[in-house]
Amino acid sequence: MISVSQKIKVASSHLLRSQMELDVEDYGLKGIGDLCNRILARYAEFPVPDATQLAIDDILYKNIPPLQFSLSKTGESFANYANNLGTARNVKVAALCRYYFESYVNLPRGKRECFIFHDDLNKLLNAIEKRVNVTLNYRGEVKNVSPCFLAFSPSQVRAYVVVCGGDTNKPIPNRFYSLRLCHIRGVAADLESSAYHCENFDLSHQADLYREHFDPFLCYGQNVKVRFTEKGAERYNKLVTNRPKVIAMDNACDKTPAKMDCAEVRGAGDYTFECSEKLAKIYFPQFLAEAEILEPRELRLWFKEEFEKAGKVYCG
Fold it and tell me: Directed axis angle between helix 14-26 and helix 32-40, to 10°?
C-alpha cells in the first residue's frame, strides 16, 4: 500500500533520468521530486498501462541511481489508483511510476513544458479566447499584457506565449513580446478589459502575421543589414544557434540587393537579414570586428556604444 508522504524509489534508465533532470533545470523546478509529483498528479491524462508496459525487470537499471521522492498531497488520487491496481493486478508502485515518467518524457519537450505549467497556461488560453488582458510575473517583472497565441520553437523544444503590451507610444512591432511559458507565474485575468492587440486592425493584423511566421524573436517584417568580412561570413555559416535568416545580398557592382533563398552566405559583403533588434543583440556581438552593423541606425549606435564600453575595460 502507498500513501501520501511515503518515499518512493523508482529504478530508471539513464535516458529517463537525464531527461527529467534536464527538465528540472530548464523549467526552474525545486528538484526531481517536484517534477515526479507534478507528473503523478495528472496521471489520468495518460493511457492506462497494459501488463507488458509494467513487466520490465528492475535489474536492467541496477547500475543507475534510482529516482527517489516523497509523494505529496497532490498525489493522493494517484495513491488510491495505485493501491487499487496493485490489489487487482499485483502491480508494483515503482513500475507504475516509471510508466508515467516514461510517458511524460516521450512527449515533445515543448509539450512537456505545457504539461508542467498547465495551470497558468490554461488561464492564458482562456484570456486569449475571451480577448482580455492579464497581469503576470515574468522573470520577476510584473507585466500587464494581452496574450495573443501559444507557439513552439521550430524544433518543438520550447513553448512560448506571444503577448501585446499596452504602451501606445511604441511602434506596433515593438509592442509584441515572445514570453517563454516556463518563466510565467501568477497569471490573473482582467475580465473587464479589452485585449490590447484587438484595439485596431493594424495591431490585430500584426498578431496574425506573427502567428503565421512565428519565431521566438519575432523577426518577421524586421530587417538588419550587416557587412561581413570573409572570416565573418565563415563564422555565420558555422554558428547556427539563433542564426537569423539571410534574405538579400548587395550586388558587388551596382549595390542593388539580390534576393537570396539559402541558409548560408557567400563570402564577404553586405547582407540583409530578417532579424529583430533583440536577436541581433544576442547573435552578432560574437563576431566582434568581423561583422559591422549598418542598419538600422539605432542598432548600429547600440553596438558602437557597447564595444566602446568593452574597449575601455581592456585599456587598463
Answer: 100
